[in-house]
Records
---
Amino acid sequence: MLNILTLAAVSTEAVPEMTKSFIAAMTITGLAVVFLGLLILVVYLTLSGKLFVRLGIGQPKPKKAPAAPAPKPVAAPKPAVPAAVAGEDEDEIAAVIAAVVAAMSTADGTAYAVRSIKPVRRVGSGRSAWAQAGMADLTAPFSIQ
């Protein structure tokens, strides 16, 4: 059977004395190893990114511009507010939406019309349309197509 005291005596002889210079050397060595590892990772990811760009992997495909149809003359838009829009300011909301659409049509030179105003149903994640658009903008660089 092994003697525990003998093992303890052997293990203490293998440990060097913890002086300030030893602690400083170990700290510097540890930091150097970590930063060297990070540098290797940065170089690897940069080179693999350049390789993928050269091979054409992961680049978004250019979208074809849709042909613009000829603008149709439209009378003044009449917003239709369905009963589904809740609140007592339905007419004001419809007027603001119609004003924005009219401003867009004069800026673009294209005639737009408001045909109906419906509340947006939250589908899937439960986020609002603004939150979904924000997530799409923020995660666009990471999408793989």
---
Amino acid sequence: MKNKFLSLLSAVLVIVLGLTLCSVAPVAAEEAKTEIVFWHSMGGVNGEAIDALVKKYNEENDKNIHVTTEFQGSYDDAINKLKSASIGNMAADLVQVYDIGTRFMIDSGWVIPMQDLIDRYEYDVSQIEPNIAAYYTVDKKLYSMPFNSSTPILYYNKDILDKAGIKEAPKSFAEIASTAKDLCEKGGAGEPISLSIYGWFFEQFLCKQGLDYVDNGNGREGKASKVVFDENGGALNILKAWKDLHDQGYAPVVGRVDAGIADFVAGKSAFTIASTASLKEILENVDKRFEVGTAYLPSVTDKTDGGVSIGGASLWALNNEDEAKEKAVWDFISFLISPASQAYWNAQTGYFPITVKAHEEDVFKENIKEFPQFMTAIDQLHDSSPESQGALISVFPEARQIIEGEIENMLNNNIDPEKVLNTMAEKINKAIEEYNLLNK
């Protein structure tokens, strides 16, 4: 009887122990997994490419790391949501922030400077395109990791140019004007250029002249205290050239930011200016109805001492004071900037491969062979000096809105460029002054 009781007791213990182990094991595994949250602002085909990369990372990484992506809407939406959070409870571990948010993010105190992670994990920063790294480098420290970098380029309808007998894409606004009549009368264009009113283009036209936007080394040697584009002649050159093109009927008001793309895709305009990140979508929407050509951003004058500055966004590691998450964030970033990932990203979106060795990947080579238009932006970037890296100011979002509103007002209401320039400078200087007073 005693033996039967001991046997029964042993059996019960085995069952209980087994159930206990079964219930404990998954918890232990779950505790070992590191979860990180990645906020991004990529929609459409770009968002699909992000999702594919994250899916690949989650399936293939062997460090028990899982990345959850959260689409935040526009870049403005993302940074505004970030502002409402608090240190140690940021709701995200890695965020994609647009180029013009750089100075704000540095000043915020929310981040782990990317240079700290680069040094800690001994990453060779020379693998990053130097002209791209230059934008996010302040005081010799890389603050964020470049990811989706782009520049504006000129898109042209080669079929219209061929009919008009034009052999080369224009290099300046003056050349666009000189070809406009033939483009319309011989080429069949409804308008020579559908030029969106975009603050980013204004900044790029300054860079193309080799001129600064603000003081203190373009906001890189210290916080900007005022604009200088009203003193160096750069902005007046832009406004006069833009208004001249408009007043001749060659560049009608088509809207802001990316509005000009629609007329180009429809075959109405011979030219448009847009980000290289729009290339994939433009090619898909044109769908071989005409041949799409790409060329360097035209200048507003015949003087082109500078080059172009990058746009797009970069990756910022938030300081949530969690060592495991910090390691996981770096591991995920390392995957995103690997040559294979960057070659895929470039082929799917049109953004630059920020890693030099991505050019050696078969995916990159095959994409360039099929779509040589992708090479234009890369060549343009390489032909630009690092000094054309662009300005850093904390009120850039407001500044762009001011620039766009005043250019729109100038064109629609025939206002003198000099008057528009003074208004721009006054409004932006006021915004800079107010920010600096609040953030001493």
---
Amino acid sequence: MREQVSTTRDIARELARRYSTMTHEELDVLENILVPKKFAKNEMILREGEVCKNIYYLDKGLVRQFYFKKDKELTEHLGIDHSIFMCIESLFREEPTKLQVQALEQSYVFALPKADLERVALHNVNIQLLYRKILEESLIISQVHADLVRFETAQDRYKRLCKLNPQLVLRAPLNYIANYLQMTPETLSRVRSSTLIE
């Protein structure tokens, strides 16, 4: 059985539904700048030192954003089906990123090149709105994660992640979940056991 792959039209409609209402003409414009990409499991989507030029919409799959600090890998973001990801500082400063993005499963991604998006947003108010809403959502997700690791106990962090993103907890490797929640795999294992008992 062949896997059903979304078209650029499907994705344009999905983005419009989530972030902004659009005319048929605006959908056409958005569809024309979307670039479909497919990544194999463990393939790198973006490497440290490259410039992030796209906002990415993950249609199907699982990705992680991470960086190295003192030779240790630190997971900053885990993304799953129907989510947006980008290296925001590199995207806007047009400078090499310190982050890396890796596909943890075979992933179908649609790239929205920033240069094209900004060009068409000048003439399309609903595409401008979509651009702004995507950036707002990205900032909120970053803030939620920062607050999670700053203010909540290990147990509450895990429970909150289960509530916010149950599919992620089921599909992402536990070592990456632990890293994302800033705890050791042993702590995560203990937390999961006690959560199951409750």
